[in-house]
């Protein structure tokens, strides 16, 4: 089997090395003066943009709260929360569930000292082939050249779970681990047969780029396979709306995971309350910063993502009537 690592794979590895090497950060637990160390994603990524906008609003509305965003990955952020190196950060619901249960990339042991703060937009299935491609189903990927993005991400995890339902694995195809942007370019240049994108924001820039170069088709996942994947905590059935991409005028069935904020259990209740209240108050400006937020509803912030909700957040959501 052929496997290659692109730029994002290298960046993810570097982030993990730096994360493991750094000393624990002394984080103030006083609500009177609280510093946020906010795990996002690589510079220029969606969570870095969204996190910066949210942090700006939080600090402006709450002078006692300071802090900064830190480039990270869901895995590194969850590990950092568990070890006290971060106190807030973005993750995806499937990764968080695995951390809670000590599965997947967290087999070293469960991370139980984390709490959900707020859920946001879905990241959904977008398996891309050219419109004239002979690939009509997941089974047809066997022996083909594909990319599931970079290794170690949610997309990688869910791609492996999907293939396993068909009795397949990466060994049955020629896999290249690339950044999503590099994968799209390789696809456009004819070096890949399919983009195995299972849990990505939408509309996604890399897919928009591909659709501008030629007519594409998105593969749906059959209902029985969706039901199996949805048994995993943090995964939900999801139908991608039509007309997100040129020529794709039909809904696409698949799964989704949610982008959400996770915090350490020791975050003071009034700090957690202040953060979610500020985000809710400024919610209307976030779709401007990140288009994926268009597909999130403000009441989704209180959505059950499979781990306990922080009491400070729960207090605000109860006041709004979003939870009982």
Question: What's this model, at a glance?
Answer:
By secondary structure, this protein is an alpha/beta fold. It has helices spanning 7-21, 46-61, 74-83, 93-101, 154-165, 180-188, 205-211, 223-229, 269-281, 286-289, 311-320; strands at residues 34-39, 65-70, 88-92, 114-130, 145-147, 174-175, 194-200, 216-219, 236-240, 252-264. Helices cover 35% and strands 21% of the residues.
What labels would you give this structure?
11 helices, D-Maltodextrin-Binding Protein, domain 2, 324 residues, 10 strands, alpha/beta, ten-stranded mixed sheet
General description of the model:
The structure is a single chain. The protein has 324 residues and is an alpha/beta fold. The protein has two domains: 7-121 and 258-320, D-Maltodextrin-Binding Protein, domain 2 (3-Layer(aba) Sandwich), CATH 3.40.190.10; 123-257, 3-Layer(aba) Sandwich (D-Maltodextrin-Binding Protein, domain 2). It has eleven helices and ten strands. The chain has helices at 7-21, 46-61, 74-83, 93-101, 154-165, 180-188, 205-211, 223-229, 269-281, 286-289, 311-320; strands at residues 34-39, 65-70, 88-92, 114-130, 145-147, 174-175, 194-200, 216-219, 236-240, 252-264. Strands 1, 2, 3, 4, 5, 6, 7, 8, 9 and 10 form a ten-stranded mixed sheet that branches. Helix 2 links the parallel strand 1 and strand 2. Helix 2 (46-61) packs across helix 9 and helix 6 packs parallel to helix 7 (205-211). It is globular and about 60 Å long. The N and C termini lie far apart (51 Å).
Blueprint of the fold:
Blueprint: H1 7-21, E1 34-39, H2 46-61, E2 65-70, H3 74-83, E3 88-92, H4 93-101, E4 114-130, E5 145-147, H5 154-165, E6 174-175, H6 180-188, E7 194-200, H7 205-211, E8 216-219, H8 223-229, E9 236-240, E10 252-264, H9 269-281, H10 286-289, H11 311-320
Parallel strand pairs: 1-2, 1-3, 5-6, 5-7
Antiparallel strand pairs: 3-10, 4-7, 4-8, 4-10, 9-10
Helix pairs in contact: 2-9, 6-7, 9-11
């Amino acid at each position: 089997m052929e496997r290659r690592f692109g730029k994002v794979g290298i960046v993810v590895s570097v982030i993990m090395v730096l994360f493991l090497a750094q000393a624990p950060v002394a984080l103030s637990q006083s609500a009177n003066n609280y510093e946020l160390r906010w795990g996002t994603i690589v510079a220029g990524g969606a969570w870095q943009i969204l996190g910066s906008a949210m942090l700006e609003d939080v600090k402006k509305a709450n002078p006692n709260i300071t802090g900064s965003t830190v480039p990270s990955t869901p895995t590194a952020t969850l590990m950092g929360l568990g070890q006290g190196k971060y106190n807030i950060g973005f993750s995806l619901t499937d990764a968080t569930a695995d951390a809670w249960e000590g599965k997947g990339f967290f087999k070293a042991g469960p991370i139980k000292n984390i709490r959900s703060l707020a859920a946001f937009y879905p990241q959904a299935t977008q398996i891309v082939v050219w419109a004239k491609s002979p690939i009509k189903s997941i089974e047809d990927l066997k022996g083909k050249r594909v990319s599931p993005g970079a290794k170690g991400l949610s997309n990688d995890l869910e791609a492996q779970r999907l293939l396993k339902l068909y009795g397949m694995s990466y060994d049955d195809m020629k896999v290249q681990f690339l950044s999503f942007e590099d994968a799209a370019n390789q696809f456009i240049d004819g070096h890949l047969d399919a983009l195995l994108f299972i849990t990505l924001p939408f509309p996604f820039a890399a897919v928009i780029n591909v659709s501008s170069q030629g007519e594409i088709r998105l593969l749906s996942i059959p209902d029985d396979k969706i039901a199996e994947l949805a048994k995993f905590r943090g995964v939900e059935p999801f139908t991608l709306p039509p007309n997100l991409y040129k020529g794709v005028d039909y809904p696409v069935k698949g799964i989704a995971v949610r982008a959400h904020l996770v915090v350490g259990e020791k975050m003071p209740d009034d700090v957690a309350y202040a953060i979610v209240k500020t985000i809710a108050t400024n919610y209307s400006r976030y779709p401007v910063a990140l288009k994926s937020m268009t597909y999130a509803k403000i009441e989704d912030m209180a959505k059950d993502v499979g781990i306990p909700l922080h009491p400070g957040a729960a207090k605000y959501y109860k006041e709004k009537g979003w939870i009982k």
